[in-house]
Amino acid sequence: MAFPDFSPGAGEFILDTDASSRVGLGAVLSQRQADGREKVIAYGSRMIHAAEKNYCTTRLELLAVVHFVKKYRYYLLGRKFTVRSDHKALQWLASLKDVEGQCARWLESLQNFDFEIIHRPGKEHGNADSLSRKYRKHAGHESCPSCQFSENVPVVNAVFGSGLSSKEVQQAQVAEKKLAAVRSYALDPGSNPSAPRVMSWEERVLWAQRQLIRVESDLLYFQSPGSGCQKKILLPPALLPKVLSELHDGVAGGHLGVRKTQEKVKARYWWPGLSRSVEEYCRSCVHCAKAKPGRSNRAPLQPICSEGAFQRIMSDIVGPLPKSRGGNRFVLTIQDSFTKWPVAVPLSNQRARRWRERFLITGLRTLVVLNF
């Protein structure tokens, strides 16, 4: 990806759009570089609504063009750009006659832009086409190109993002007694071992999730349903302080909040009660408590009740302002709380004598509320 270049003589923007029936819309905004290559500026996609599922193919493709041209209008307005689509019928939009209804409004909204629609074969339009498709939630190893290796390469000693080596994790998993039962089941699922009679809360959670635990390269991994090929390391309790300290306090942690720290930990590890452990660690962080301000509770609102006109007067002074021709730099504002009748009086200074002279023109009142 690259930043957009708006300098004179910069390459043109290219907008690739596509629409999939009953699924969604996709687009890729690119810009041609000096060497002729195209670099992506932004990706975009959205699901189609219930009413849009009844649109024909041409109307859906036109909807994709209209939607993403408006979305990226800050890049495209005032510049000539190219729209590429795998639907050839869109090339004849400019020559259509007697267009009515929704399509007419769409075409009218596109008149503010200077662009040309070019047909692109579907085989070459995979960038926008993939963004308009529905992802496969339950993708197995057979359909995942990343999992199709020519041979299995043994892992000698891997280093994870939190400074843990595979050997260190393996030794901690073997030494942890709470993982013994699920480790035996993962090594030989067909044996169907019986659950221990006495188990802690963590052991009960692990035993309930035993079918999702795998052993690869002598390491225990947790693979949640619907995650495809993504596996997370089953972290033993002995390594929790080191991992949480690295991912929250370390250079890559940045003392983020509870939610973002949980997302960072969940991307690599799993253990029973992960969310609660991360929350407790973040709440007890001394640096976060010192640096991050606490939530300030707002004072309850106090309604102002007036029974009649000019019983309660509200007053304030605005300024200093640029000096006027008469030498005034302040404005005395007076308003009746009941009728909202306003008065603005110019003042040369904020001295009490000047305020008294101007304010007494309204006479004495039951209550005067000042804000200065």
Automatic annotation (TrEMBL):
SUPFAM superfamilies per UniProt: DNA/RNA polymerases (SSF56672), Ribonuclease H-like (SSF53098)
MF terms in GO: endonuclease activity; hydrolase activity; nucleic acid binding; RNA-directed DNA polymerase activity
Pfam family for this entry, one: Integrase_H2C2
Reverse transcriptase RNase H-like domain mapped to chain residues: 12-113
Signal peptide: none
Gene3D superfamilies cross-referenced by the UniProt entry: 1.10.340.70, 3.10.20.370, Ribonuclease H-like superfamily/Ribonuclease H (3.30.420.10)
Integrase zinc-binding domain ranges (all copies): 236-293
Keywords (A to Z) from UniProt: Endonuclease, Hydrolase, Nuclease, Nucleotidyltransferase, RNA-directed DNA polymerase, Transferase
Cross-referenced InterPro entries: DNA/RNA_pol_sf, Integrase_H2C2, Retrovirus_Pol_polyprotein, RNaseH-like_sf, RNaseH_sf, RT_RNaseH
Alphabetized PANTHER family for the sequence: PROTEIN CBG26694, PROTEIN NYNRIN-LIKE
Protein name: Integrase catalytic domain-containing protein
Species, as recorded: Macrostomum lignano
